[in-house]
Amino acid sequence: MTPPLHSIVSRLHLKQLRLLVALGEHGSLLKASQQVALTQPGASKALQEIETTFGTPLFVRTNRGLEPNAVGHCVIRYARLIQTDLAHLRDEIVGIMRGQGGRVAAGVIMGAVPLLTDAISALVARQADLSVEIVEDTSAALLAQLDAGRLDLAICRTTISQAPQVYDSVKLQDETLAVIANVGHPLRHATPAPPIATLTKTSPHSQEQIPRDGSHDAQTTGEIAYYPHPSIAEQFEIIAA
């Protein structure tokens, strides 16, 4: 049984994380112990304590040394992430103490990438030592990373969240969705539909009523992509953690 989080946090030490990363790199307890300045018996004891902390073996003992199992690969990956975050923390502290530098992690959805890159270019021009990490993903994924503290801010949509009110956000702009059609399609010269309850999609084989409430995804055929309405505006927001 996996121990509770508070138990893992209270028992795990940074030097043990360094040992895990070294074991992942070398696959040898001797080489890993030398890298983290431990004796081999000390490293062996530390590994036993780590496996006790997580409540499961992390490595398979083979003739070639120690090979991480599935859980071991997972733990080593997160140990590396923690080390990287600590390095970023140190860099940011140094920058703050020098009155410059610093680090910001920003998330962005694909359609808002130009907005973010323009803003970052202007910011870096004023603060050349600033370190910027950019994560491009969906709104749902970016909000999850904000919740986890992995991002400082994100340009995305809060409307997909079940609790959008928990975010501090500022509206940036509207995004207009459009109907994309083959240049030879009969609807190329059609006028926009009036605001009626449904939009009728006609294909050679069927006719389908598409709800206008936004609950229907884009419908596609070989020639044309239909959205609920060609002038729906979706809102970009900048969201702070």
UniProtKB/TrEMBL annotation:
It comes from the Bacteria. It holds the Pfam family LysR_substrate. Residues 12-69 form the HTH lysR-type domain. One of its GO terms (molecular function) is DNA binding. InterPro entries: HTH-type_LysR_regulators, LysR_HTH_N, LysR_subst-bd, WH-like_DNA-bd_sf, WH_DNA-bd_sf. Keywords: DNA-binding, Transcription, Transcription regulation. Belongs to the LysR transcriptional regulatory family. This is DNA-binding transcriptional LysR family regulator.
